[in-house]
Amino acid sequence: MTFQVDMGEDRTGKSVPIDLEELLATRLLVQGNSGSGKSHLLRRLLERSASQVQQIIIDPEGDFVTLAGPHGHVAIEAVQYSAPEVLRFASRCREHRTSVVLSLEGLEMEGQMRCAAAFLSGLFDAPREHWFPALVVVDEAQIFAPASGADVSEEVRRASLSAMTNLMSRGRKRGLAGIIATQRLAKLSKNVAAEASNFLMGRTFLDIDMARAADLLGMERRQAEAIRDLERGSFLALGPAICRRPIAVKIGPVETSARSGSPILSPLPQAPAGDMKQFLLAGFDEVPPRPVKASPPPPAVETVLDQIGHVDLTPTPEIEAPDPALLNQLVSDVLRAIVEDPYSTARPAAILFQDFQVRCRMVGVQAPPLAPSAFARRLAAARAGIFDGLDEEWAVAIDAATDLPDDMLGAFLLVARAAREGEACPTDEDIARTYGTSSLGRARRVMNYIESRNLFVIRIDLAGKRSVTIPALGWTTRSTETV
Which Gene3D superfamilies does this chain map to (predicted)? Predict the structure, then answer.
């Protein structure tokens, strides 16, 4: 059984079909610059074949989720799931022969590549009894099979490229027919592109892309200029599922549309120019309100009575307490020595607590003056340059940071000290050193996390200088470079 998918008309007005059965065996590559009509072409192919074959679409921009209504596709937002869940989802798609659209919208490039690799691996590794024929459409394939190193980890790049290569080279025996679309052939891995036997080449302008397209179409280099002159929605077609010689085809209309259409000119709003400045800058000087902390519910009466019944009333022998002022000074000196040790920067608080106990015994303090949790907070403050006054002058700042993890308290207090004294905002290197790391990226994530808790309001001006306001305290640092 075969089925002809009407894609449009050639220059003589004759219909140009694609043999669906042949397409399943020979795969398809679509190329064209942004705006050339690739998504329109894929949508035409999917709509006209939806009732004949299972369709699986990897959609980086979420444009094809509109197929879910009239054609019964199941749209899945990948941002809501983990990689193992996506892999199981792919296996169930093959088992139940359900047409799906996996939308990767909302994920960064590395997340999209990681998700696509897991999904394609799930399709590829399905049991033999589930090897039913399916069209696997990958839009913007250069993201998942880059010709050169992308701005992602090598592990993710290799996994994504391997999954795409398996789809195009070994997927046919498993019933998977790869249909890949790309803006530029030069950005797409040659090992992936070479496995396609059918081609639809749209408008492109760069010489290297026109030359590769002409080679794939079997055209001479001087004929490659025709690719530059193609109209939007027109493609040069070649392949065993379409035709034996290159022909130009104008893609026909579609029933559904993408969520993000092409830009259309519309009249600008009419507003008084004199009032527009105050509209644009309104509220910039306002400090966001500090979130109200919910008080924990009081314990039940039975719980309190039970705790009272288990209190040990045995009197303990009295131990002469050391002088508080002297003890506090000794603790401050020990913390200062630990912070000044260059090897202590990358050591966790649990390890440094042991060092703290040894140093305390060396200065004559036998019993540990601080519990591990209290030491972690004192250490964080010491790394921020604060050794005394935590319970007095810095109490309001400590109270504002109650919801922060202990390891982030140092970064908060470092910024708070600079803001209180009107100094420049600490750099990312300062934040990293206080946090106990050498990674500037981790330091930025710490700052972003604190801002997400509404403890910081970070402002970066057009010169790239950063200043931080602490709404709960009303303190603001001076602007400075972030690194």
Answer: P-loop containing nucleotide triphosphate hydrolases
Q: Which two tokens stand for residue 462?
A: 């057009």
Give the H/E segment covering residue 248. strand 243-251
pLDDT digits (tens, 9 = 90+) for 222-257: 667 778 778 888 998 889 999 988 888 999 999 988
Please state, in angstroms and rounded to a whole number, the distance separating the CA atoms of residues 82 and 118: 10
Phi, psi of 252, deg, nearest 5: -75, 180
User: Is 146:161 a contact under the CB 8 Å cutoff?
Assistant: yes
Strands 100-103 and 457-460: unpaired
Is the full-model pTM beyond 0.85? Answer: no
- Give the CA angle between residues 448, 454, 457 to the nearest 5°: 65
Does the domain formed by 4-251 have CATH 3.40.50.300? yes
Sign of the torsion formed by the C-alpha atoms of 185, 186, 190 and 194 = positive
pLDDT of residue 318: 46
For residue 150, pLDDT over 80 is answered with no
- What are the structural domain ranges in the chain? 4-251, 337-481
Smallest CA-to-CA distance from 64 within 260, 221, 197 is with: 260
From the CA atom positions of the chain, what is the Rg in Å?
Answer: 32
